[in-house]
Every structure is written in structure tokens, then in C-alpha cells.
Amino acid sequence: MFKTYQKYLINNFLLKFIYFSLIFFALTLILNILEEITFLKDINVPFWYPYFLTILNSPITLFEIFPFIFILTTQFLFYELFKKRELSLLKINGLNNLKIIKTLFLLSLVIGVFNVLIYYNFASKLNFQYSIIKNKFSDDNKYLAMVTQSGLWIKDEVDGKTLLTKSKLIKDNILFETMINEFNEDFQLLRTIQANKIDISNNNWIIYNPIITVENNSEKLKNLIYFKTNFNEKRINNLFSNISTLDISKLFNLIDDYKKIGYSPDEIIIHLLKLFTMPIFYGILTILSAIIMFNISSNKPLIFHIALGIFLSVIIYYINFMFGSLAGNGRIPIIASIFFPILILSVFSIIGLIDINEK
Predict the structure, then answer these.
(1) Highest mean pLDDT range out of 14-18, 296-300, 341-345?
(2) pLDDT tens digits along 276-318
(3) Which of 46, 70, 232, 287 is the most exposed place for a label (fewest CB within 10 A)?
(4) Sequence-distant (≥ 6) Cβ neighbours of residue 279 within 8 angstroms
(5) Which residues, including other chains, have CB under 8 Å from residue 116's CB and lie 6 or more apart?
């Protein structure tokens, strides 16, 4: 059973967390609706379409803002406790600062688990539908790439011809064991190109020793040919980078599919590790924010706390971004990119907890 002070802290924290979540969700809606209206201004769609797309896309954006919301929630909780002198009343009744922080830390962990297991999966499904609908109105709709258990599939259109490419393996800028089917505007097969090796460094693919089949007549060339497409290594990598549209189960399945075609699953692994460590990250941010509030004057104006929250969020964002970039470039291990920022923040938190009851 929860003690009275625990119920009080939990209720106040949850109310402020919901309050700030609604504020930032509203801001996200406003910013996204402007973007969707601009995107659809020359397209004949019902008036409600931009609003519908905004609702589908905004929840996943809010998920990215949650660390900032935890910082502000903790700051404003203590701001209110200081202003109403409720913290002093709690201490008179035998409660110390460490117990307060412990309660808020455990609550942040619980909220974090809910956010990852429930909210994120829900938001990613909405974002997936958003991507499907948005792609219908995009020029990129005719250029598609996807990974399945059978390999890498690419749909392309060049000079009025439709190209369907299937490759068993991709490594850096090379496709291995590839088949390209070329169709005319009536989707009649014109020719098939098979090759064990294709260089996709740029849009003019270099096909080595291809076997070209036209009307059941095959010819094997002993040299290389150039093949014009709208895809290259960079573009294919970018198409696979939007993993926020996939829920956790699909992310695990995609790791296996990537490995089968030789494509690096590092980005997915980093994303999953970030998700699974997110509750701990939220808890540490709550501790850090509480420690800062205990160590600054309770007479500071409200705008000071808002500015401090923004400043902390920017610093933490760049710490995560720096380690994520280093891992993406292969300069540090993937595990290190996730746990180093948490370790750094944990060290500062542990130092701040020393003599916290004296504050």
C-alpha cells in the first residue's frame, strides 16, 4: 500500500506530466498542421485530410519530447512544493529528500515502461499509416524499396519503364545475386537482367557480366554495362532509416531480414536499445532535475525554471546525438553509444545525491 505522502507526490507528478504532455501535444499539432496544409495545398483532397494526417503523425513526435517533459514535470512539481511550503511540512512529518526522490524515480520508471510498451507501439502504428498515406501523394511513390525474407526489393520508374529489382544480398555499395525485370507502360516484360555483382555507388549502376534475357533468348556478356535508375547506395540507406514507423515486434523481425540480405541492422539495434533503456533514462532525468531544484534558491522566478529546463534538455539532446553519431560512424561500439550518456548522467546524479538530505 502507498503511504499518504507517496500518493500525494504521485498524484501531483502525474497531473503535471499529463498537463505538460497535453501542452506539447497541442504545440505539435499546430506545427504539424501547418506543414500538412502546405504539403497538400496543390492536391485535391477533402478539407479534413491535413488534420487527419496531423493526428496520425503527432503522437510519435510527442514520444521524442518525453525526456523534456520529465524534466519540466519534476521542476514544476518542486517549484510548487517550495512556493506552498509543502516540502517543509513533509519534512516535519519525518520525510527526507532522498525518500521524495526515490518515489519520483520509481514513478518515472513505471511511466517509462508504459510509454515504451504501450504508447510507443500505438504511436508507431499510427506513424506507419501516416507514411503509407503520405507516400501516395509524394513524388517518391513510384520509387519504393523494402526488405523481405526473400531479399531486397526495389520498384523504380525510368523513361516510362517500370523496373522491379530483387537482390539477395547487399554489402556497402554492391548488390549480389540480383535480377532486374524491365516492363513497358502496359506492364509487359521487355527484358530480364541477371548479375552476381552490381555497383550502386550512383544512379548509373555498373552491372558486371550480366545475363540479358529477351523473349526467352538469353545472352551472357563478358563485360560490364551501365544501367540508369533513380536509386543509389545513399538513397537506399535513407529509405531504411525511418524505423519509427515500426513497432517493437516488427523491429525484431526486421533485424533478421536485414541480416539475411547482408544489410547492417546497427541502426535498428541502436533504436531498440534506446527504447529499452528509456525508462531508466527518464528516471535519471527525474533524479537530476530534482537534485538541481534542491540546490537552487526557491525564490527563483518561474521563467528561470523554464529556461533551466530548456537548457538541460538541449545539453542532454546533444550528448545523445554525439554518441549516436559516433556509433553510426563505427567509431565507438553500439552499446557504448547508448550507455555512455546514461552513465554520465548517472554519475552526476550520484554525486548530487550525496548529502541531499541536508538541502
Answers:
(1) 14-18
(2) 999 999 999 999 888 888 877 666 776 776 777 778 778 887 8
(3) 46
(4) 108, 109, 110, 111, 112, 113, 115, 116
(5) 248, 275, 276, 278, 279
